[in-house]
Design a protein that fits this description.
Strand content: 35-45%
Organism: Oryza brachyantha (malo sina)
Number of domains: 1
Domain DUF1618: 217-330
Distance between the termini: 25 Å
Strand order of the largest sheet: 20-21-22-23-25
Pfam family, one: DUF1618
Number of strands: 25
Number of helices: 3
Region (Disordered): 1-20
Radius of gyration: 21 Å
Order of helices and strands: HEEEEEEEEEEEEEEEEEEEHHEEEEEE
Helix content: under 10%
Protein name: DUF1618 domain-containing protein
Length: 405
């Protein structure tokens, strides 16, 4: 089959599954790679400070920024990171500033050799709002705290033009935390001292998810902290993970096995783990049904072997290996989750044990060995901001027929 014919087949197959990436009001969900592409020189036209290289989901959509925002060579411990996104085209970007770790002539270099975890201590850090509608990148005022952790910062839109950034700084060995809130209206940070329900347990800082004006801080070993920014005084409400999912603090690589996300207004949790009685790998998904009581509904549990046995999985030519967690589908009515394996991103209807689609995922940084739920997020782009460079498909996307195996 010629390349042209193959492309025609792809285009004909896409609408059935890809319609779930579109909202009822015509807006599109994209899969955003959280480490942006950094460019130099005259890549941008005058007056342009950022750009979106958009692609139809589940292909990778990427933010592009100038190296003046993120000058340092990327490492797995030190890289610019999209910590938040809203539905009005704004992205919250964290970056370290100053000198490069190892000057490189390579565009957008990634230093893949082992590097000290804290080699960037003492280097200035900053948050930026990258408005992809105006293509302007604005550095937020420093909030005065030494602790910048992009896994504790979230972005919530109040209106099309107004937003807030919330940065949580739990105290060490205390039951209090500093909640720092930046308002686009005032252009300043305000500190709010709040009770810290986990008390003396250190927070895992595995990211932030937002629904309307409620911000949820995620610790994949323990639970979630929620704060409704409309209610003052601000307070944190703790919601534990489903029963049996708690892990010791600082358990490594949980973002490779677990993820949290919203489908509509439902907060969902997915994990890859071992079945208790025989140790076989399984995937489970839950939905939070009572925030106050911390009650979760167990939606499904599927053997990874059943996914391997699906004819859709066999069509990917992937080996029978346990994949890495990526994200939960934000719109699909079923129990649909996405996984990484060998540079591919594939979606599975867990209840049906069926692979829906797969894609070579062009996330250049970090290298594929590090791909996990930490490095991708579902982002609903507003119609007004969806005018960037989409370009031709960069990789082949095959949506499989809707037959069960």
């Amino acid at each position: 089959m010629s390349a042209e014919a193959a492309e025609e087949k792809v285009d004909a197959a896409e609408p059935e599954e890809n319609r779930h990436w579109e909202t009822k009001d015509g807006e599109q969900w994209v899969v955003l790679a959280c480490v942006p592409l950094v460019v130099r020189g005259n890549y941008f036209s005058p007056g342009i400070e950022n750009k979106i290289k958009a692609a139809k989901a589940p292909r990778a959509t990427r933010l592009v920024v100038h190296r003046s925002i993120a000058p340092r060579t990327k490492t797995i411990y030190d890289h610019p990171y999209v910590a938040g996104a809203d539905c009005h085209g704004r992205l919250l970007l964290y970056a370290t500033l100053g000198y490069e770790l190892k000057p490189s002539l390579v565009l957008d270099a990634f230093y893949s050799k082992p590097a000290p975890p804290f080699d960037h201590r003492g280097v200035p850090e900053a948050y930026f709002i990258c408005d992809t509608r105006t293509h302007k990148s604005t550095r937020l005022n420093d909030h005065g705290f030494h602790n910048f952790h992009p896994g504790n910062a979230g972005l919530a839109s109040l209106t099309e033009d107004m937003y807030v950034v919330a940065d949580l700084n739990p105290g060490v060995g205390t039951d209090r935390a500093s909640l720092l809130i930046y308002s686009s209206g005032s252009g300043n940070w305000e500190e709010h001292m709040v009770d810290y329900p986990p008390h003396h347990r250190p927070w895992g800082s595995n990211g932030v998810v937002v629904h309307q004006t409620i911000i949820w801080w995620v610790d994949l070993s323990y639970g979630l902290l929620a704060c409704d920014l409309r209610i003052e005084p601000h307070n944190l409400r703790f919601v534990p993970l489903p029963e049996g999912c708690e892990m010791p603090p600082s358990t490594p690589d949980l973002d490779r096995r677990r993820c949290v996300g919203f489908r509509g207004g439902d907060l969902r949790y997915m994990q890859i783990h071992e079945r208790v009685f025989d140790g076989k790998p399984i995937v489970s998904m839950w939905t939070l049904i009572d925030q106050d009581a911390g009650t979760w509904r167990h939606d499904c549990e599927v053997l990874v072997k059943d996914i391997w046995d699906d004819k859709g999985y066999k069509a990917t030519k992937l080996p029978r290996e346990v994949p890495t967690a990526a994200l939960i589908h934000p719109e699909h009515p079923g129990d649909v989750a996405y996984f990484f394996l060998h540079s591919r991103l594939f979606g599975v209807d867990l209840a049906a044990r069926r692979v829906l689609e797969w894609q070579f995922f062009q996330m250049l940084h970090p290298p594929s060995a590090y791909h996990s739920s930490r490095f991708v997020r579902a982002w609903k782009r507003s119609i007004s901001s969806a005018n960037d460079d989409t370009g031709p498909p960069m990789t082949v996307n095959i949506a499989l027929p809707g037959t069960t195996s």
